[in-house]
Amino acid sequence: MPMLIAAAAVFLAIHLLISGTRARDALTGRIGEGPYMGLFSLASLAGIVWLGFAYAQARHAAADDVLWDITPLTRSVQLALQLLAMLLILPGLTTPNPTSVRQEASLQNPEVVKGMLRITRHPFLWGVAVWALGHLLVNGDLASIMLFGSMLALALFGTVSIDAKRRRKLGKGWDAFAAQTSNIPFAAVAAGRQRLSLGEIGWWRLALGVIAWAALGWAHPLLFGVRAFP
């Protein structure tokens, strides 16, 4: 467990204490945007690999440390949450978005706020948050709580970190974009600043999300040794 805690702490620190802060600004000022992105990508890859190995070891060593068990209800809720997660993640990844890596230029498009961005300006990260929450429901062992809890924290705090980073870099253009959108899903719609338009999202994006959900559910026992579907 100590190794898993250390891996989770380093992985969170890379993303929340460096990537989204003025430390990143200082580093890119010294070495340039390209080299920084290369080093950050390598550090992130190393961090996720370390986290995966540490999780496997911790879960095996502390298999009896279970705080809650899976039930038919939590399994059903988990499946629904994973579908919602894919409907956020896949359309989010395929929609032009100023919050995404190297897509700041999309802010220059006066019609950039459409589709998924009417729901939230961080569809991918909210999808990851829903994914992590669903896995927490059906994995009550301490190692899983540490892993998926870290992913949940990273996704939620990551939205705030990215907003701060984009605000520093893009200035008034970002402020105008943020005023039209919301971090929390559907908050801008509820406030009347946006309207929901499934057609704008693109039915092919939604279909891609459903296909990914079904494929991952089918492959889950092959990839992770645990059945996802009943």
Automatic annotation (TrEMBL):
Keyword Signal annotated: no
Residues annotated as domain NnrU: 3-227
Entry membrane topology: Multi-pass membrane protein
Main location: membrane
Cellular localisation: Membrane
The protein, known as: NnrU family protein
PANTHER family: 15-CIS-ZETA-CAROTENE ISOMERASE, CHLOROPLASTIC (PTHR35988:SF2)
Family matches, as InterPro entries: NnrU_dom (IPR009915)
Transmembrane segments: 39-56, 77-94, 142-162, 203-224
GO CC aspect terms: membrane
Molecular function (Gene Ontology), one example: 9,15,9'-tri-cis-zeta-carotene isomerase activity
Organism: Phenylobacterium soli
Keyword annotations from UniProtKB, A to Z: Membrane, Transmembrane, Transmembrane helix
